[in-house]
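yo, Peptidase M14 domain-containing protein is done. seq:
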Amino acid sequence: MQANQTIFVVPDMSYNSTLRIVTVEPGGLTATHTDKLRILVNFGQHARELVTSEIALGLLRVLADPARELLTLLERRRVGSPIPMLELLAKSVWKVIPLENSRGRAVVEAGRFCERRNGRGVDTNRNWGVDWGKKEPDYDPNEEFPGTKAFSEPEANLVREAAVLFQPHIWINVHSGMEALFMPFDHKVGAPGGGGAAASNATLAMLAGVNKEVFGGRCVVGPGGKSVGYLAHGTATDYMHGILKVPVSLTWEVFGDESAAYEDCYRMFNPTTREGLEAVVDSWTAAFFALLSRVPDHMGMPRQFWSPQLAAQVAAVRARDGLGLTRPAVLGSWGLAPWMGASLAVVAFFVVLFRRRGRSRATHAAQ
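structure:
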């Protein structure tokens, strides 16, 4: 594994941050990543979500020795088939950021367990340049202060720079506060439409499959702004999708204890027993590989990774385009039946109604 470290100092020289990135190529190091499936995963963006960095270590453990660790994990979790996953892993390169917000993490470790912002009080997941600075009626600066301007913070700049240089096909931003598999958008209700509708439906189908296979369907799945019950402005995932055009841009929420008292942030965002921690790390590490196994069925991925079935479906859709292909037919072509899209929309509607009763700290952390 390769580890890169960068120190970024903001222009006024008053605040800096260090970003460590671990690069893993299970199939062997190459001089260029042009022909590889490129995956960028970010952990520890919010300081109090300590469990996310534990999952980073679990993921890196498997990536470092997939022939042994992946087989053991899949058998233990009863997830997927190892041979296709190992073949895809050999064609992939991963960049893993185990802890984005190291300065905020130091504040939490000093005893302020409810702090989610960085070392100078900015929520780095509100500091990105898509819809930056907009505030909802229940905006709380102690939770969501977006900074003085977009990209005022070194953490956001460093992650953006890493993404620009790497040009990932998949971005996953890992949080805690609930159990959810989110896709764009965060800053408005709904998923990408128009020319991006087919890819959006493919992503939704991918997440629904991971949810069923790994979590038994218990996670919330869908666009973040629609599914969590509130809008988040200036998020990393919306920037990855809208500006950097990352084909699959996701936010995962890995744990939440809704029974925790408001002031008990450690329990709210992190497992409190060894058994609980191991279960969370195990299941969410498996989720990365369940997602990987679905790459060949996603039309937003590079064509060399497409399955023969997807290639045939794409060819059929293009042939029909000249015959006035309707939108429901397109939905079906990407593995998401027309009725499924409507059903998911209804489910998301009721989730929104349920969650709009009020935002707790946990729902603030969901994105």
